[in-house]
Amino acid sequence: MNTLDLHFSPGRYLAPVVDWLNQHLHPVFVAISQMIEAVLGAVQAVLLAPPPLMLIAIVVALAYVLAHWRIAIFAAVMLLFCLFSGLWLASMQTIALVSVAVLISVAVAFPLGVLAARVKRVDAWVSPLLNVMQTVPPWVYLIPAVMLFSLGRVPAIIATVVYGIPPMLRLTTLAFKQLPKDLLELGQASGASPRDILFKIELPTAAPTLLVGLNQCILLSLAMVVLAGLVGAGGLGAEVTRGLTRMEMGLGLRAGLAIVAVALLLDRLSRGALQRHSPRQLA
């Protein structure tokens, strides 16, 4: 007796779509890849141009100005660990990848979050989409990115961007929804233009929540580092992958600790900026 075959294969339906996209939109994907590679190469060149100790001194000075002297010392310790562990190049590659991914995520999420906060219909469409995006495991985003952009740093950045957009978008929407109406009415009553209201009232008031969103975006982007190493993105993720495949416990441990160091560095810097822009100080 024949049994009913209930097996469902989504690849059967997605493969023709991917083939059509690669055939008809290949120049678009090439242009996107070249643009991302150019930006990533520029950021990486800036990080690797000065000697390591000079770059560490620059980061320490920025940490002191943006946050606190304790965070400046902490930044020095984390960067010195990356240097003396022999993973300076991989660490800078990882920081460059995360920086570009966060920059693109913020460029997409911030205006869309502002629009969602002001237009209810947009918010109604965006909210369920964000729920799905935050439920899907992060490595799933690598599959369509690799199908469209092949292996390398570009699909890793695109997957990281998709994974990092939801927290920034959600908190941007929340920040602008919670703006005190009396401040907005005061700005309108004083004859301020919409641009002045945005930059002089809304953004300073929403800054603490926006910085929390930026912090979450950075941490989630760093969570993709190891997965990015699986598709040839380089950096510390590639070192972790190399340590696992070759059973080199020392390399894998050093690379893992370097990822922790980079994560703590970026987290403390963003949190320090958040404390500097706390509601009490903004008031």
From TrEMBL:
InterPro entries xrefs: MetI-like, MetI-like_sf
Keywords: Cell membrane, Membrane, Transmembrane, Transmembrane helix, Transport
Location within or outside the cell: Cell membrane
A molecular function GO annotation: carnitine transmembrane transporter activity
A biological process from GO: choline transport
Any one annotated GO CC term: ATP-binding cassette (ABC) transporter complex
Major place of residence: membrane
Source organism: Pseudomonas eucalypticola
Protein name per UniProt: ABC transporter permease subunit
Family stated for the protein in its record: Belongs to the binding-protein-dependent transport system permease family.
Topology with respect to the bilayer: Multi-pass membrane protein
Transmembrane domains' residue ranges: 45-65, 71-90, 97-119, 139-165, 217-237, 249-266
Domain ABC transmembrane type-1 span(s) in chain numbering: 91-270
Pfam families tied to this protein: BPD_transp_1 (PF00528)
